[in-house]
Write a structure and sequence with these properties.
2 copies of one chain form a homodimer. Chain A is mainly α. In chain A, about 85% of the residues lie in helices and about 0% in strands.
């Protein structure tokens, strides 16, 4: 039996179930005309951004397709295009559902927390199921297509991964710059200069801000995990075929692990139900835990059937365990219940400076445990089953993408639902429901970002292993005692630093553009502050769209261009060093930024609950400064590091055949 | 002729000239009783701190000496003790001179800029000459002692380096925590809560703050560069003896390079003279340039006499060029004249948050060029003369320590002179002189920190090379495709992050202790604010001393303990990975922190010159927040990374013989 066909089937179930959830969500009521007007404005803004982003990307994709086709043959060109298209489709459909689920969540909130949770989670699940389904389908489908053509070399799959990668780095950067440019810019004028609350309909930037959550946390995250999934599956298959040639089981196992994860994720969604204690986060975790347990249970007989030893089962189990441990670690550093956030809030009480110093220290310290977990998992899985064992651990971690992205994409929906409720003056009890959902959305966003960077790290290590295996015939050792490896290592280590700096600066520039526009509207449109005339939301959306698309190009090209230049000028050895350098500092920069940013955010929320004088107190102002710094950390630069690490590695793997 | 004897002679000249400068400085007038009272308080505080620090260190040193003696023999134990003692002596004498030169500078300021500059620079030169002289003397002397004992194995020199290393990491941390704990704590209560200016005699923490500059920038920097000098010379000699065994020229060349640098530094001090344009920085640079040119010129005939090829001359020249390039790069990112600082000041104009975001982006971006310079120098010098070539480049860079430390130690003297002038209400024209000297002191501190971290990076690479050579018989490859190397790399990369976080938190804790004490004095001692009663300066000094010494221990033990644990549990391969991981992220964390911190400091000064509303404006407040964050960045965590990188490597080199 051809297991790839089976995987295609599992992927189809995932996509089909996602489409079913869309249909179900669309049937729900959409509320008053005022609410609809806002939801439509968000949805139009999001669509306008994605359309323009895809136009830019389309142009770049066509050029790269042509280059690949010419240099490496038609299969590479086609595979690249398939990867890019599937990623784009998953992001687009997911986000379009999210911007429709938001208003339905706000409306369902009238019927209580359980109803609103169910709508918001179903909306998020669409993105999760489409990402996992299309990712698995694209790998299995391309593999079958190659088989059908009688091509036994599976390397064109690398081009498939590169297609996903390219979309991913642009989507993360573009979405991240958009969301934080809009957020920071809108708040600077609205909250600080005009003294009006967040999500106030009088603020001309408010729609852009609400759009931002969708393009960043939904479309951006979708593209990121689509890519991680595809490159991990591809790298696992390639590693399997290189280290154990001719063994079909080794080639098919990653696809089967993916299939198990998808089915487990779908079943897991049914476990997301509010318990008697009415706590939302445990409800979401129930779904994740169910998916983990199911995956682990199903993995056992399948490993037994395919292999004589259970070592690959243990490696797979390790990937699932890493997922759980990463969630626990991220929660510890970003939840208001534990020491780190409370210490940070206390530091805010002595001023802006100490708030930042404590947050930076927290962000740096928070890297240790995740990195040790990744290192430990690598070592154990390697000892279990060699490089292929590491690949299986990574694949099993990624197989949970469906449920994890569902939990993440829940965030922007609840955020928007809260915004719509706020802007349309909903009654207190409705606002309470949307607010509590929104608060949880912040935690889920932090937790899934921890998962995303850890899985990106593991995936990149697997890609790096594939790169070294690919060059095995040249007997390169990538020894640290070789100066060219060290030079490569240093250049690679510099990449996340420069990339992160450019991303942070881009947010600053986009925010500046928003500030200018919002100030202009407050000044020239009479009666805005009195609520007598409507601001021109569309203008602000348009400006931030343009700024984000302009600013994303330079940093996005870094991880594509630098490995090519280093590879061809300094050679394969230096490029190997570069890859490991990028993975190393990338992990630290990414982890510290995403955790640190979430920590500042929640320290602010902790103070807003009434500690250290609550809202408006000096401690709160210092915490707001921390949050402002945390914004580009956690939503732009930090998460954009993930695709950046992987793009660097996949480009290297792609050009490995040409290097000496 | 024995070149080691010649080096000992050069070292003696340096120390002798330093002592002559002390005698000359001591003869200068010391001003009014009021001024003397302040200067005495500073000097007592500094001495009290150093005494207590050395007591703690003495205890640790005795334990380690005993351990080394027992495990590796008496020569190791003795060499370790010599290294520790010489470093301590250089720091102590240098700092004791600085705390006497400060008042003499303030008094000389009455006679104009040229007079004050000459006193301050002579005071700083004492530290520089003693550091370089004692470092060279300890290496050459220990080498001669080993020869005298008939011991041909030069490995006990590693213990000498370790002695310097241990003092260095404690001195950098203890000094750094002290200086910024006192600075931040004193400012928080004085400037912000009580609204009195900096260096106001009514502030109970003001003496502690002035003491801090000496223990941080003088004693700390002295220990740091003493260590870098010794470990580089030792590693170069060991690399020479391992890669080209039996070649005496190779063994002696590093000592000769050091001798040249020392003589060139002494001559260089004579070129530090105010030009007709009355600009201070160019006067200092003249000294540096003279020393560089002289070194380069003298290097040529000596290389020609010892070796058949000139390749080692080019490698040495490269080290001198790296020194110059690092100065230029650091100046670009931290001088008020160029784009980066002006952009940072503009960002402060839109608030606290944007001030921090822009500063963080700047700090991250500023790492690229220095790292490329270090990588390039490594590659070129390796191609010129192998690993030994890299060592010679590093040694030639370090040979300029004398003049570089002189320029750096000038900083705390001028800072203190300014403080004394301020506290004793000196006339406008005196204050103008001390202020302009103080402003330059800020730049020199930034520039020499760039030199310190770059030379630490090169030194660490040379140490790493010695480690790999030492394990050569085991035919280890330290290949990046080996998971245990990767795991080591990750653990090593985590070290600077955790270390930096602990250092930043330590500053917070020390500052908190100062805040409590200063608040107590303002509250309980009647008439402080009216200037009727004197604050208890000594109490504040005592409290920050205790806090700094307590907080320095844990982070300082990290780079000693972790390599031992990893080496014996995960093995020599993983330890190799760890070393490179620590060097890599250490360079980035160190560079970004020292440059970023100086940038915030100078952006604040730029605004204080009247831009964006000048002092007291919202832009200024935001810049002050940036400066507060920059303080522990540039004066505690950042510079402490230097010794931390080297300690890790020297510990590994020391235990290499026991590893498998």
């Amino acid at each position: 039996m051809n297991y790839a066909v089976l995987s295609l089937l599992a992927a189809a179930v995932s996509v089909g179930y996602g489409l079913y959830l869309i249909a179900k969500t669309m049937k729900l009521p959409t509320g008053t005309p005022t609410q609809n007007a806002i939801a439509d404005a968000i949805s139009e803004g999001a669509k306008a951004f994605l359309t323009r982003e895809y136009q830019t990307l389309g142009l770049i994709a066509v050029v790269i397709t042509a280059l690949l086709w010419y240099a490496m043959g038609s299969t590479y060109g086609i595979a690249f295009l398939v990867g890019a298209l599937c990623s784009a489709v998953a992001g687009a459909i997911g986000m379009n559902t999210a911007v429709r689920a938001n208003i339905r969540t706000a409306v369902a909130a009238k019927h209580g927390l359980a109803a609103a949770l169910s709508v918001a989670f179903a909306g998020g699940a669409v993105t999760g199921l489409l990402v996992a389904g299309l990712a698995l389908a694209s790998v299995a489908g391309t593999y079958l297509w190659l088989q059908g053509q009688g091509i036994t070399d599976i390397r064109p799959l690398i081009a498939l991964g590169f297609g996903g990668s390219l979309i991913s780095v642009f989507a993360r950067l573009g979405g991240g710059i958009y969301t934080k440019g809009a957020d920071v810019g809108t708040d600077l004028v609205g909250k600080i200069e005009q003294g009006i609350p967040e999500d106030d309909p009088r603020n001309p930037g408010v729609i852009a801000d609400l759009v931002g959550d969708n393009v960043g946390d939904d479309a951006g995250m979708a593209a990121d995990l689509f890519e991680t999934y595809v490159v991990t599956a591809v790298a696992a298959m390639i590693l399997g075929s290189l280290t154990l040639p001719g063994n079909t089981a080794v080639l098919m196992f990653p696809l089967l692990v993916g299939s198990i994860g998808i089915v487990a994720s779908i079943v897991g969604t049914y476990f997301v139900k509010l318990g008697s204690n009415k706590k939302i986060m445990p409800a979401l975790y129930k779904g994740l835990i169910a998916a983990c347990v199911l995956s682990a249970v199903a993995l056992f007989p399948i490993t037994q059937a395919l292999f004589s030893s259970l070592n690959l089962f243990w490696a797979g189990l390790l990937g699932i365990i890493v997922t759980g441990v990463m969630v626990v670690i991220t929660e510890y550093f970003t939840s208001k219940q534990y020491g780190p956030i409370r210490g940070l809030a206390a530091a805010a009480n002595t001023g802006h400076g100490t708030s930042i110093i404590a947050g930076l220290a927290l962000s740096m310290k928070s890297t240790l445990m995740p990195v040790l977990v990744i290192a430990g998992a690598t070592l154990v899985s390697y000892n279990l089953a060699g490089l292929y064992g590491v690949a299986v651990a990574a694949m099993s971690m990624l197989s949970l993408t469906g449920i994890v992205v569902a939990i993440d994409a829940f965030g922007p929906i609840t955020d928007n639902a809260g915004g719509i409720a706020e802007m349309t003056n909903q009654p207190e009890d409705v606002r309470k429901v949307t607010d509590s959902l929104d608060a949880v959305g912040n935690t889920t966003k932090a937790v899934t970002k921890g998962y995303a960077i850890a899985s990106a790290g593991l995936a990149a290590l697997v890609l790096f292993a594939s790169y070294t295996q690919e060059l095995r015939s040249q007997a390169l050792t990538f020894a640290l005692s070789d100066p060219s490896v060290v030079v490569g290592l240093f250049i690679g280590a510099a990449l996340p630093y420069v990339f992160g700096a450019l991303a942070m600066e881009a947010v600053g520039k986009a925010a500046q553009a928003v500030v200018v526009e919002v100030r202009r509207q407050f000044k020239t449109i009479k009666g805005i502050m009195e609520g007598k005339s409507k601001p021109e939301y569309g203008k602000a959306v348009d400006i931030v769209t343009r700024a984000a698309l302009k600013e994303m190009v330079l940093p996005a090209l870094l991880p594509v261009g630098v490995p090519i230049i280093v590879g061809f000028i300094l050679g394969a050895q230096a490029l190997g060093g570069l890859l490991m350098g990028t993975i190393t500092t990338g992990l630290f920069v990414g982890l510290s930024m995403t955790t640190g940013g979430a920590a500042w955010d929640n320290a602010k929320k902790y103070i807003e609950e009434g500690h250290y004088g609550g809202k408006g107190s000096p401690a709160h102002q210092a915490a707001v400064t921390g949050d402002t710094v945390g914004d580009p950390y956690k939503d732009t630069a930090g998460p954009a590091i993930n695709p950046m690490i992987k793009v660097t590695n996949i480009v290297a793997l792609l050009i490995a055949g040409f290097l000496r």
